[in-house]
Amino acid sequence: MADTKERQVAASGISAGRGSSRPSSSTLESVHERFVAGEVDATYLNSSLRPVVAQSWQRSLAGGVNPDLAAARAADAVSAIERLRETHPLAPALPVIRRLLVDDAVDSGVVVAVSAADGTLLWVEGDPKARRKAEAMNFVPGADWSERGAGTNAPGTSLALDREVQILGSEHFSRVVQPWSCTAAPVHDPATGALLGAIDLTGGTEVASSQTLALVRATAFAVENHLALLRATGVYAEPAARKPHLVVLGGDRPRWVTTDGYGHLQATHLTGRHADILVLLSRHPEGLSADHLAVLLDDKDLDVVTVRAEMSRLRKVIGAENLGSRPYRLLAAITSDIGEVFEALDAGDVESALTRYAGPLLTQSVSPAIARLRTQLSATLRDAVLAEGAHGRADLLRRWLELPEGRDDRDGWKALRDSAGLTAAARARARGHLAGLDFELG
């Protein structure tokens, strides 16, 4: 009971021996500036701030969070957020959260967010205007709002401490978040006590009140009771494990991403050769022999013994249950970012394909089969975007031309220049870029 009271006191901002007052915004900003500049130590910080904030700032700085970042960093779940939502154990309780919080937040300037236990935002709903403003700091589904990703903030700090937390304005570690205030409470599995995620209210200073804290706490309690009832009546289905997800597009290291039943993401970095193999196996569900795989991986007579050794090592990385032999094949269904782009293109959804396209496929690969697939994907997406541009989708053209592959795409810039409805400034920029390309090409 004492522990519960202590948590409530810390969450509401009332520190023992210091009353309920908080430093002014200008004082907080001054302390923040001096702290991130290394001019004050932990002792000064602890005497100037609420302990929950002082300790969170120290964790944020020690974790390498940049207070000047424009937004929280993206999580590995960004390209797979829909699948993560479908399998997350909080999904069955979403109607309860909407009834208790979201319905009243639609026109109140408040945003309601539900995060997974690792800080990945799953749902962000509420006032449309507030949501659009929140997008500027990447407070969107799929973004990482853990403390290590975004610094001191209510949902991230609530997850770090496993208790209710309120963060008022300039108490946030990242400057871009300091115009906002937020209140969050963790949610636990009613049977095991495992941390499932957090429920958060974000808005103006009014959301850092004791009334808001009581409301969010009550909602978390209602969600836990709802999950317990569903399980007791046999309605609740245990969350299915998300399919393994292969990330191979863009400049980041290729990754094999899995998650447990509670939405905790686990990303394993892959070697270039292992990434090549997994891409090829994902495109050949019928399987590949060692000889065929050797030819696809390297056109310089890669020997079969080397292929078999690589497959043995790969089996240890992704699990023997996922990789079969004779022929080599994937035993479990997986998803991949390259597969999602191709699927969107096949469905005629060029906008989704462009959104999911993080960049070229495995640019460091020497595999001729990967090089062919890389060219196929890029060319298909480019042609689809140009076709959409011819039908008035100048926004898609602009997004393609902002990619490294599109910067020197003369046909693309010409199509943008000739697009209807373009502003004078945008048309002038397209003309200027074309002139630069023509000059470079002589």
From TrEMBL:
<dbReference type="InterPro" id="IPR003018">
    <property type="entry name" value="GAF"/>
</dbReference>
<feature type="region of interest" description="Disordered">
    <location>
        <begin position="1"/>
        <end position="30"/>
    </location>
</feature>
<protein>
    <submittedName>
        <fullName>Putative GAF sensor protein</fullName>
    </submittedName>
</protein>
<dbReference type="InterPro" id="IPR029016">
    <property type="entry name" value="GAF-like_dom_sf"/>
</dbReference>
<feature type="domain" description="GAF">
    <location>
        <begin position="116"/>
        <end position="226"/>
    </location>
</feature>
<feature type="compositionally biased region" description="Low complexity">
    <location>
        <begin position="10"/>
        <end position="26"/>
    </location>
</feature>
<dbReference type="Pfam" id="PF01590">
    <property type="entry name" value="GAF"/>
</dbReference>
